[in-house]
User: What shape does this take?
Amino acid sequence: MPKKYVYFYTEANKDLKHLLGSKGANLGEMKKLNIPVSPAFTITTQACSYFLENNFTCSKDLEKQILNNLKKIEKETNSFFANSSNPLLLSVRSGATVSMPGMMDTILNLGLNDKTVIGLSKKAENQRFAYDSYRRFIQMFGEVVLGVSSRTFKKVIDNLKSKKKIEEDTELKLEDLKEIITTYKKIIKKETKKDFPQDPTIQLKLAINSIFKSWNNKRAIEYRLQNNIENKLLTAVNVQAMVFGNLNSDSGTGVCFSRNPATGENKFYGEYLINAQGEDIVSGVRTPQPISILKRKMKDQYLQLLKISKTLEKHFKDMQDIEFTIENKKLFILQTRNGKRTPKAAVKIAMDMLDEKLITQKEAILRIDPESLEKLLHKSLDPKSLNNSLILTKGLPASPGAVTGQIVFSAKRAYEENKKGKKVILIRTETSPEDIKGINACQGILTKRGGLTSHAAVVTRAMGKVCVSSVSDLQILENLKKVIIKNKTFKEGDNLTIDGTTGNVYAGKIPLVNPILSKDFEKLMDLLDKYKKLEIRVNADNLKEAEIGLTFSVEGIGLCRTEHMFFEENKIKSVREMVLSESLEGRQKALDELLPMQRKDFVKLFKVMKNKPTTIRLLDFPLHELLPKNKKDIVDLAKTLKISALKINEKIKNLKETNPMLGFRGCRLLVTYPEITIMQTRAIVEAAIFVNKKFKLKTVPEIVVPLVGDVKEVELLKKMIIETINQIFLEKKTTIKYKIGAMIEIPRAALISEKLAKHVDFFSFGTNDLTQMTLGLSRDDSNMFLKDYIRLGVYKKDPFTSIDKEGVGQLMQLGIKKAINKNKNLKLGVCGEHAADPESILFFHKIGIDYVSCSPYRVPVARLSAARAAILEMD
Amino acid sequence: MPKKYVYFYTEANKDLKHLLGSKGANLGEMKKLNIPVSPAFTITTQACSYFLENNFTCSKDLEKQILNNLKKIEKETNSFFANSSNPLLLSVRSGATVSMPGMMDTILNLGLNDKTVIGLSKKAENQRFAYDSYRRFIQMFGEVVLGVSSRTFKKVIDNLKSKKKIEEDTELKLEDLKEIITTYKKIIKKETKKDFPQDPTIQLKLAINSIFKSWNNKRAIEYRLQNNIENKLLTAVNVQAMVFGNLNSDSGTGVCFSRNPATGENKFYGEYLINAQGEDIVSGVRTPQPISILKRKMKDQYLQLLKISKTLEKHFKDMQDIEFTIENKKLFILQTRNGKRTPKAAVKIAMDMLDEKLITQKEAILRIDPESLEKLLHKSLDPKSLNNSLILTKGLPASPGAVTGQIVFSAKRAYEENKKGKKVILIRTETSPEDIKGINACQGILTKRGGLTSHAAVVTRAMGKVCVSSVSDLQILENLKKVIIKNKTFKEGDNLTIDGTTGNVYAGKIPLVNPILSKDFEKLMDLLDKYKKLEIRVNADNLKEAEIGLTFSVEGIGLCRTEHMFFEENKIKSVREMVLSESLEGRQKALDELLPMQRKDFVKLFKVMKNKPTTIRLLDFPLHELLPKNKKDIVDLAKTLKISALKINEKIKNLKETNPMLGFRGCRLLVTYPEITIMQTRAIVEAAIFVNKKFKLKTVPEIVVPLVGDVKEVELLKKMIIETINQIFLEKKTTIKYKIGAMIEIPRAALISEKLAKHVDFFSFGTNDLTQMTLGLSRDDSNMFLKDYIRLGVYKKDPFTSIDKEGVGQLMQLGIKKAINKNKNLKLGVCGEHAADPESILFFHKIGIDYVSCSPYRVPVARLSAARAAILEMD
Assistant: This one.
């Protein structure tokens, strides 16, 4: 039996979506619901697959099946394809499984030629309509199928309009249209060396092929990339009998939504154009009118449409985006699909539909894109003031939200200008931890280098500041306090606007709108806790971050990076003294100064976390990063510490590393300088004892050892930590509970996890570093080829954004299996950027992770993802 | 039943070596052979273990068993411990399983006190002897057991000798000795706050404990570290009835070897001292006489010793190092062990014994330390001219051999001075590929930074040049052309001598001796091929390296690093042009220039290799490394290429990476710039076609893709390579065979090996990079803590020298298992430093590797290791 490549609309239904695309499947659904749909058939994605794999030729079976189905349409419409007196005209549209609005091609009025246009004129009793349709068809076919540029066609019409001194297409007379048609045909002949095809069968064949090919056009590939749609899904083709919104003034076409897609309000919403075809709305040639006008002018049709909208929403259990056409007062639905919506609307619609008992709790949760939630938490550009021509350049969307501010080129200037009350955007080639004061003072950061997990990106996300990174066409002239962007020069104090949600950079000021967290948002959050199994913690290096986390109901701190504390103004002097000291005594003196300061930091955290688990990571930092970088700071430090700048320079030189990522950091430092380990342990445990006593709490601090690669490291450090703690217990004459864990960041740690598991209470997977080492990929340097790699399909996604399940994930699973085997009580966490990535969270849930810890503003995303993971597992 | 902690010498034998140490086990063997041995017993390593694990206390059982065995000695010697008229005196010596000569402690004459010394006087009828023995005992016991410094005791004797105006210890009179004894006792009382113990039982107990403790003294730990002896082996203690070489002039003591330990010659060799105890030889207080003198003076004893030496050699089937004592004309053997020997002697002895049918082929092979072989291939310092006080400083022994030369501080100067015929040593903070011309021109390299696998180390080993790296106390003042080493300043042109075998650096010139490859060496090499299964290949980037490899009978080239070819003078301009070009056209132009040059390089290699497999690795290099580094070179390049230096600087800045190891290199470059892949493929295949035709060969080039992390990379590159090759076949109207392989260097590649295996003919494990990434350890930066890590036992050995079986090895095994499962014909190679490490080779043999590829001068080491691996597997 030949393969079934074509489904008539009566055969279609939503279970065939993978074959028919959503458009085709929904046509079948609508037909079943007795909604007025023009007869149609759908060519499957398998036919597309055949076409693409067989050197752009269609299966013979397909051709036969198309003919058979054409006959069915002819029967239902009582008109005939290629018949010059009673012509059947077709719309031919792409239709992918996942909706890709406007990304692929559509051809209307197919079947018209020099003869059928006369037939249509007579049948419709409207010559102008027929020739306008023919003009439209040649133009669309010319553009979409034959590849003639739209500008060429547009120029013809524009010239004629200016010659005739008319403004609107609708004012074109019959003769004008005929003249245009003649010119169009000449253009096609000239550009393609062939005549415009008069045979409707050939028109249809070419149109179908063109849609198949359009799956791989640049625009479609780009869209799929941006929206993480798999290339192999392919498109179906829908062939449908035309209905004409441009027949007369009792006709029209429009788009409506069963609820408001911007606000989510449960209110019918839409717009329409009288005497028009769909393309008139899409192309923006004419400005449509609000749907309320339709209510006044064609009440019956309006009420019918409203009813259909309700029916469809109820049927599909989601807000519908409906295209309709009225032909001579008769309403047809062209297509319906689940409507795109703003994040805010998504939350409201899901919560409303839950209240309306239209969907279940699980469905409501699954309905919301986790990633979109973060957008609710940040300022955004006012859509009213926005158009793409304002975009100056584009970088990576490193930390979401939008900001307008005066540009500065150093952390110091950021600090100074901010003190004067200015809003500033800091522009840097890349940031380093010593810029932290400036980062704190600015509203946003723009960097030339660094990916989504660069220092600037990670720090700004944690702080809820805006960041656009990796803007390679920044030419920063730091000394001149200037930046050149695409030949435009901006100097210190000039205004820029950056959008960390899209990565766009704009010149000047653009109005912003504030986020408002709705009741619906809170309702959703509460709902999530009923389902999710993963514990959600926050990465917090200071009180502020912990507090933001708590407003999003985190269950603990999963990662407190003590080295970030070291950069605070009151500590950096002692820290640098410690690094520069050649002797244990010198280091010890500096550490003695640091101890009370670190203890105070931990007191603040433990106090605000009120018994919630708080994981403190011991120092994990290349020492040289703690030293100043520019000349002036070095001289200043030399003065403060009363040593020569030469000595500081020598030390900086000695500590310089070729590959700091793989260098002297993490537990390697802690093993080599036990005094640091002891000081930090002391600060943590003394703080916990103090807080527990003063505020009657039962804090159980969790100490985690970074960058573990060998069991001996854990043995040595555990011994140091426990001896220090026991000493404190003796001194304070009291005890507390505590936990010791290991960061699993080095591939070897995962490989020998069964040995580590015996010694610790928990593992914390540092998936950023684990990804870097497992893939041999520096997050700071990979931008040079990452785009190419994603384009070529080597990586499906940026592996620093979404966990590489096959490689890093395999290693994690291996590590977990071995470890749990040796220590059933081992608690497993993930901290880092992946801990807030929805797809990664599904994976973490599946492999048995107990908690994820992410930056404060990503907590809602993680929470929703965790609930989704649990729900998807149930089903 | 109590545990047996003590073995009488009649109970001992060589199978108990793990318990009794080699000294104790061999005493038993000698007893069985009826060789005159003074009665003795041995306390086991288990007793040592008990002692160290039980807070420095001995088991009660041990004490009982010692007493029982003491009684047996008393019975045999008919003298009695602690008996004042007929005292039994003991020697107490350490004895580890693996011989650690001079590393641990020995106490002689134990049992003497103020009373027994009188008994001894009477019994020996020699008062001076008895008091001299007592003096020696107090001194040794004081030093070894009570921890008084040897200088304190020496000062007493020196003072007395200068007072009495005598030169030799032997001139000391009885009264002098008594005076010394009194002073010694006072010193001990003063320093230890306790009297010298008079009770022989307490003396014995303290001596035994002290030897147990000595296992962990600094000297012993250091020795084990250097010689890769495991800490857990522990030491036994040998307690033996004293015989006295210092009794009278019919007595004496000495050391002899059954063959010459320096040359290997089968000739009895040794030296002795008349009227002396062993310590007199060891301490260098007196200069011993050659054994030939003994032959004249005491012919019977000499002949008896010679006979025993033969007997023992035959019994132990190895050259013996024998300590003996003659007491009043009666010969006693104190101990025998397999003698240490020079690498040269080792080869000669093994081959001679094989000829003599004393040992089998397998035994002969196992007898030679693979690591020692390389020493035969390089110049060395003349031992006659050498003493440790000449050492200026010490670094890592990065590339073996010794060299004397004038120092220079730049590659350029090295080249210029070498042209003048000078021998030069290049001093650099670290070297980079662009120094290659200077490295070529110099005799040796001294660097401040970089480990055993740093650029300098790898390149010099390949070239057979000397390198000492990681000399942290170099203070290089490059601009002043000076270096300060330990406060001494050396300027350009001054002479230094560096020893890359030991890592020592000497001021001035030191005479060198040339290597001579003996017939025995060649005989050994041939023998190896009968046993080894691993194929041995050479890493060769140029003709010279390939030729050296071939002199050591390599079976192919396992790794040709094409990027090294890029640095040659004729190519570097085009290479840089390629890197700097912004357009495909520009790159293509430069590549077109490079093609004939690369092809020529490959022609040379294929020609010399005569059908032996030759693996060419496609470009694996961060682009910025190909650009010049210093100002002048940049200006020069700008002139040559007629572009602005500013542009070059901008490009260098843009290409700079934070972690180049994890950056834009390897197949990432090849995927992003297909034109490079195509050019290199073309050069390889065109060269092979040319050579095959011209020289009637059947070269099968093996192309290997570096730094693979994903199957898609292999798919893309394989497609490019095959398309290019097919194009060449069409052009040349001929075909050849070829293979395509993948470098397994990224942990992820091992994790997804089953996917890669389907696409390639072979895997080449790049274990250097694999180690770096699996351990998260940069080979260039790890020196900052590697020493501490080895001292603390985190790493047993430098993981860049010896493969980390537990981590990296596990990953390799995992990768191999999965890969072989999918592709049974997959060939597996290892290239990199581990490929010549004996222990690593054992591992590679075991896990199913087919070939190893190492630098030319390491080939004999690898070959021997491979044969050993096969033999060890058989047994």
